[in-house]
Structure formats: C-alpha cells, structure tokens
C-alpha cells in the first residue's frame, strides 16, 4: 500500500539482510533468534523520524537492536553547528528555557550530541538493558 509515494512495504528480514544484520546504532551484530521484548531482538529504526517528517521507506530505515532503538528515543544526532544553532533558536523562543538556551554553545551541543549517539554508549546501554531483561524479564 502506497500513500503519496512515501510509504513502502518492507520486512525486518529484508532490511536486516541489506544491513548485514549489524545494528545501525551500536554497530554490533543483531541475531534474528531473539524475540521482542528481548532488548537484543531486531527492530527497524527510522533514521529521520516519522514525527520529523521522515518517510516510511527503505531509504529511511535501518536495522537496530530493539533496545538501541528505544534508547535513541526519537532524537537525532546534531551533525553541524548550524543544526545546533537552529535548535538553540527554538529554545530561545520558550520563555522558561531562555536562560538555559543562552548558556548553550553550539559547538558543545554538537559534541554532546555526538557523544550521546556514539556506538560505545549504545553498546553500554544495551548491555545494561540485557542484564535487566535476563534478571527481571522486561
Ligand atoms: Zn544495537
């Protein structure tokens, strides 16, 4: 079923095969044998989120661990100072956040965002989720 050419039919297996069964966030292998809600189970992540106007198409999705996908929490890494400035401009317009926004430096925002989205951090967070899942089953 297509809608405005922005929706495609695809399967997790198809995307997994395309992506070599490597998680797009932590860069570790994803095994098909794990089932949701195991944090290691395969999951499809929208690179540009649907909420941010991303399309539900093969070109905008990647394979991830379910836990890594959940950890990403719909945020997208800032790649450039211009992106950080744009985000800061939005915060400056919110009275309650104005002082906070004025204290931000775009370069620091980019650096922190890149650190937040680093494979190492996702890997560490996934390990903690798996530990909890195996202990508590959730
Ligand atoms: Zn992962």
TrEMBL record:
Matching Gene3D superfamilies: 1.10.30.50
Species this chain originates from: Streptomyces calvus
Residue span, HNH nuclease domain: 10-70
InterPro entries, per database record: HNH, HNH_nuc
Protein name as annotated: HNH endonuclease
Keywords: Endonuclease, Hydrolase, Nuclease
Recorded GO MF terms: endonuclease activity; nucleic acid binding; zinc ion binding
One Pfam match: HNH
């Amino acid at each position: 079923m297509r809608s405005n050419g922005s929706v495609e039919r695809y399967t997790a297996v198809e995307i997994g095969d395309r992506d070599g069964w490597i998680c797009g966030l932590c860069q570790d292998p994803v095994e098909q044998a794990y089932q949701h809600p195991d944090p290691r189970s395969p999951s499809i992540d929208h690179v540009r989120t649907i909420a941010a106007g991303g399309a539900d198409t093969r070109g905008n999705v990647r394979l991830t661990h379910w836990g890594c996908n959940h950890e990403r929490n719909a945020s997208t890494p800032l790649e450039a100072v211009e992106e950080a400035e744009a985000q800061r401009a939005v915060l400056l317009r919110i009275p309650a956040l104005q002082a906070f926004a004025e204290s931000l430096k775009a370069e620091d925002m980019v650096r922190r965002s890149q650190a937040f989205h680093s494979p190492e951090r996702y890997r560490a967070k996934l390990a903690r989720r798996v530990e909890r899942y195996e202990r508590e089953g959730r």
